[in-house]
Design goal:
alpha/beta, single chain, about 120 residues, 6 strands, six-stranded mixed beta sheet, Oxidized Rhodanese, domain 1
Amino acid sequence: MHFGSGVPTVGVDALSSDDFLLDVREHDEWAAGHAEGALHIPMSDFVARFGELTEKAPDGGRINVICRSGGRSAQVTTYLVQQGLDAVNVDGGMQVWEAAGRPVVDGNGAPGAVI
C-alpha cells in the first residue's frame, strides 16, 4: 500500500476475491460492468446512503473503494478516512481491474465491460 496525494492506495493485484469492494461509479457505468460482489453506492448519492455502507462493510475491515480510473474513489476514500474508517483507493480503478483480467459482470450477471 502506498500513499499518493495523501490518499491510502492499493493496487488491483493486491486484492483477493474476499476483499470488500465499494464501487462509487454512476448507475450506467455499474450496469455496463462491475466487479462481482461489490457494493454499489454512486458518489452522487454517497452521503445520503452512507448508512448502507456501514451496514454492509465488514466490522473493522478494510473498504476498498473503486471507480472508473481512481479520481472519484480517491475523494470517497478521503471522506471515509475522515469518518475513522479503514479505507483505501483502488489504484487505476475498474480500467486497471479489467485490464488485469479480473472478472467484470453486467447488471444481469453476464460478462460486462468497463465504460
